[in-house]
Amino acid sequence: MLLYTKIKKINSNGFTLIEIIASIAILGLVIAVFLPIFPQMMSWSKNADNELVASNLLSQVANDIKENEVIFNDIKINLVEDHHYNCERNQTYSIQRDALDTLPDYDLNKSSYDVAVEVCQSNEYKEKELGLYRTHIKIQAGNPEKTISDTYFYLTEDGGTNEEI
């Protein structure tokens, strides 16, 4: 009996080797499960940042288009005089930043954003009679195939926008 109590007393003060190995293995499994989440969280954060900037940039681009007389006159000339930009036939007039050099560069948060603007008029919905131009703005970041955000609105003949029509 004396031997049993002496052994029990010696072993009750620390962890055994098996307990230490088991705890390290469990800790390793937990780390292995949660490790891939951190890079994914960084990617989600970057995407959320791009989407926030793009949604704010949409209204800025719409304002730049309606305030810039060169762009607006170019739209009117191409849509009124050339009747082949018809929405029903999916023929849109694209405003190219390089061609007109009137749309500003949109560099925000150390990222460059490309803007694609397409305008057309429809005879079917009386857009010509009402003096409305159907406008589609797409915001793209880095990769032109990746559209972050886009919106549709009507540009009126006097240069204003009417998003409630």
TrEMBL record:
Its main location: other. It is found in: Cell surface. Keywords: Competence, Membrane, Transmembrane, Transmembrane helix. It comes from the Bacteria. Gene3D superfamilies: Glycoprotein, Type 4 Pilin. GO terms for biological process: establishment of competence for transformation. One of its GO terms (cellular component) is cell surface. The chain crosses the membrane at residues 20-38. This is Prepilin-type cleavage/methylation domain-containing protein. It comes from Virgibacillus indicus.
